[in-house]
Amino acid sequence: MVKESKATEVKRYTIQQFYGSESITGNSISYDGRKVLFSGDKTGIYNAYCVSVEDGVRTQLTHSEDNAVLVTSYFPDDDRFLFLSDKGGNEILHIYVKNENGEEIDLTPGEQERAEFYSWSQDGKAFSTGQISGILVTWTSMKWILPLLNLLVFLRMMKDTNLGPSL
């Protein structure tokens, strides 16, 4: 015997509603458990936001108008956070730290190096990243020449330490 099911009416959205929706990606919980960090494209460009767990208040942390800001992680013991960003959509992502004073520092400078965040060490004193450089695609044969992948480990610096390119 086949059981009849009732059809559910599907809600329709206008094109304005469809394109007006926000996409959210990434998340990290702050060291004290009071905030959740994420990226959202509410303005048309991904930026970093946090939302209070206590009252749901959302705060915009970056204000990029050109380059997507994709959050990766809060620092283990303060409100600094790491994020990925490229320049003008070139897809050459760099890892940045946003300090508590608002300063943004590129931890992986270089013209053609694409960086990725992997994870924090178990004790929270270092994190690992990968850098990819030298990507070459031969379109005529659709053959990829594999990039050189370098694994980097950064020590987590104290709040008053400059996290500049001299790491």
UniProtKB/TrEMBL annotation:
Cross-referenced InterPro entries: 6-blade_b-propeller_TolB-like
Protein name: Peptidase
Source organism: Mesobacillus boroniphilus JCM 21738
